[in-house]
Prior knowledge:
Number of strands of chain A: 0
Oligomer: heterodimer
Distance between the termini of chain A: 38 Å
Structural class of chain A: mainly alpha
Strand order of the largest sheet of chain B: 2-3-5
Number of helices of chain A: 11
Radius of gyration of chain A: 20 Å
Amino acid sequence: MDEIFIYLIIFGTLFGAILYAVVLVWFERRLLGLWQDRFGPNRVGPFGIGLAFADMIKLIAKEDWVPPFSDKFIFIFAPTAVMIAMLMGFAVVPYAPGIYVVDLNIALLFFLGMTSLAVYSVLLGGLASRNKYALLGGLRSAAQMVSYEVFMGLSLMGVVMLSGSFSLVDIVNAQKDLWFVVSQFLGFFVFLIAGIAEIHRLPFDLPEAEHELVAGFHTEYSGMKFSMFMLGEYLGVILISSMIVTIFFGGWLGPDFLPPIFWFGIKTFIFICFFVLLRGAIPRPRYDQLMSLGWKVMLPLTLINLMVTGGVVLWWGQA
Amino acid sequence: MIESIISQIRTLWTVLIHMFLRRETVQYPEEMPYLAPRYRGRIVLTRDPDGVERCVACNLCAVACPVDCIALEKTEDEDGRWYPEFFRINFSRCIMCGFCEEACPTYAIQLTPDFEMCEYDRQNMVYEKEHLLIDGPGKYPDYSFYRIAGKTIGGKDKGEAENEAPPVDVKSLLP
Lengths: 319, 175
């Protein structure tokens, strides 16, 4: 019984996440339409939701071209890396008490590691394409990585100090009285920005930058490989949103009139909408601007946050 | 720094507020957009109030046309009225500029507020005279070229047109 239940959660997570990501492609366009005073795709099926599946069919049916000048093995490997890494990240997300794939005692580190691995797919994809635009995209991705990876991990250490654990279930349980967004607001702010940069969403989609670099690192990709990059990006949006909710907004915690998993879903949904809003509103910085923001503002902020949190924890004894 | 953060937040707020504003999109096939009466769409050939076609086959429209999409040939009837033997507009070339309408001395060729002319076969975009001719006078209901112009045709001699004085007999000395 127990074993069946865990398999159910694993497959539910896999298919749920991928399906959610597919629908998100459509949902994002509808939402952007709403915020830009237009409709967005509303023709296929009710509210146009059929478009998500029409898109999927189109992408599967498209010619899957591997450029003869590319580094073939890496070219084919790159898009799988982002999917695998993002889906692995979902393994540690606690949806509700008892509903998670695994409760690692290093869940937070595992999540950070997996999302960092996802960056490799962008880098390798850009490099293996042997295309100038793709190379520039990969280059920017590397520059972006060194500017936010540092403070992304550090911004969560305040939370770890307060909850005394790397396990996400313990972190959620530690927020019973007060969400960490209140006590760790700086940490939340920094993690939000780092999270956006980590999954290469606008305004930090420098490696893609379709206005400058055609399509950046995935210029040469088509068909299923391209859609894996796309799915990886949207899986990243869901993953980062659920992580923000888990770490700073009390995960499944909420008033009793709804089951915990609904609270988790609602909060995650709000953050996904926020990511779409960011895409609709904020212009993209240059990558030297992003680097100077990362090193000159975000890193000092994180270190101050870390020091103050550490001091407070020591002052009042074990929190 | 603080200023720029506030500015970004204001941007987010401004975009968010657009959720409650009216959408600008016109849901086209269900909801037709308003087209002004002088909208430059599909070209028609009109008839004068008597129901005779207005076109006098002067070829000015074909000359004015920047993409050479109009082709016609003149012929005459027994009254001496000119009319086109054939009149052909290739709508796959037409750019709806309206120069033909401006050039036309008889208000025969007119542009209408209709743009739905899609065809699967390009050959079907070539409209012949029977496709172009409409039954009415179009935008100028009372205008009839031969009733106003001084040209002699069967049934109307010199000086019989509207606003036209009878011809002066230059050989007479009487005032």
